[in-house]
Amino acid sequence: MNAPAASLRLSDAQRLNWLRLLRSDNVGPSTFRDLINRYGSAKAALDALPDLAARGGKRKIRIATAAEAEAELDRVRRFGGRIIAVGEADYPPMLRHMDVPPPLVTVMGRDEVFSAPAVAIVGARNASASGAKMARLLAGELGQAGFTIVSGLARGIDAAAHWASLDTGTVAVLAGGLDKPYPPENLELIGRIARQGAVITEMPFGWEPRARDFPRRNRLIAGLGLGLVVVEAAQRSGSLISARLAGDLGRQVFAVPGSPIDPRAAGSNGLLKDGAVLTLSGTDVIEQLAPMIGRAPAPTLREPDNAPPQAEDEDVGDRPPANAQDLLVEAMGPVPMPVDEIVRHAGLPARVVATLLLELDLAGRLERHSGGAVSLTAPDQ
């Protein structure tokens, strides 16, 4: 797959402001996008954060300082990595197909592995010998066919897939910072990947991975490939989360069948019942994905810091009524709900609802879900 022409190149000042905005409290990829779309630049959005958070119910919001952002940029550079913005020439092309791409990713390694068509291979950490062998065979066959292999550096299936594709191209996706790979036993493997393939994360440098960070890593794994193959997965496992995320992103899901009496195969066998492509060899994957190779990338976020901010504040029609936030909160609850349904139920203009959701998000009162659904956070959060 050929990388598209660059639509954006951040200046040093712009990159600093992007990083500051993304590292500020309660600003994730969706919130970042909404802020840029509303204010036109990261600098203008940073200036607006305190007032937005206050209107959402949070008196004080922590905004990352320029010194903190400069320190992270410097540490990444000294470590041998680089921080890349969505839309820049070296941003991984497939991530642009995500509904909400990570605004910034930290990468170390060879850019060309992201330009090749990719397949994610994931599965059980406590893999059987036959499961690990199957992962190696699939990764080797797909690698020889020109595919980059993407996985999460975990024990078992992930590690087997990485080792088998070192010579043809592999990408390790981390749940922590570039300098905090997990598990520690795979330090030699990640060193090899960084030299021969690439390592990527959207987490800050120095970030120790936590359990709740792995679903976010799994979303990147799903987003980087045209398809995702599950080799051995229990009924409740991170691999099934990756498969669901891949489906949400429009990626093809594959599964290797396993013994019905092996609990490590219960999840992958369940995927087959739900419509995943039965996978017995790399040929099954190649035949399904071949027509997708070379498709045009999705539109990317464009926001040079010298772009004029959007003029919503001057639009009288966007000014919410005094009780707008009460109406919105009343329409919502702990159950995820599509935004358009909230708009209809609350009886408020869509642009007003978008602004109010942004305020609640920055105040830590909103939770975002796949497919663009939102909910209120639990009272004790």
Please provide a written account of the structure.
The protein is of the alpha/beta class. The chain has 3 domains: 12-107, no CATH class; 114-197 and 208-292, Rossmann fold (3-Layer(aba) Sandwich); 320-376, Winged helix-like DNA-binding domain superfamily/Winged helix DNA-binding domain (Arc Repressor Mutant, subunit A, Orthogonal Bundle). It is built from 15 helices and 11 strands. Strands 1-2-6-5-4-3-7-8-9 form a 9-stranded mixed sheet, with helices on both faces. The protein has a two-stranded antiparallel ribbon with strand order 10-11. β5, α8 (187-196) and β6 form a beta-alpha-beta unit. α3 (42-56) crosses α15 (350-362), α9 (214-224) crosses α10 and α13 (324-331) crosses α14. The longest helix is centred in the middle third of the chain and has 16 residues, at 129-144. The termini are far apart. The model is unreliable at 1-6 and 296-318 (pLDDT under 50).
Strand content: 5-15%
The total beta strand count reads: 11
pLDDT < 50 stretches: 1-6, 296-318
Morphology call: globular
Write the layout of secondary structure elements.
Elements: H1 12-22, H2 29-39, H3 42-56, H4 66-79, E1 82-85, E2 104-109, H5 112-115, E3 118-123, H6 129-144, E4 148-151, H7 157-164, E5 170-173, H8 187-196, E6 198-201, H9 214-224, E7 227-231, H10 238-248, E8 252-256, H11 266-273, E9 277-278, H12 282-289, H13 324-331, H14 339-346, H15 350-362, E10 366-368, E11 374-376
Parallel strand pairs: 3-4, 3-7, 4-5, 5-6, 7-8, 8-9
Antiparallel strand pairs: 1-2, 2-6, 10-11
Helix pairs in contact: 1-3, 1-4, 2-3, 3-15, 6-7, 6-12, 9-10, 13-14
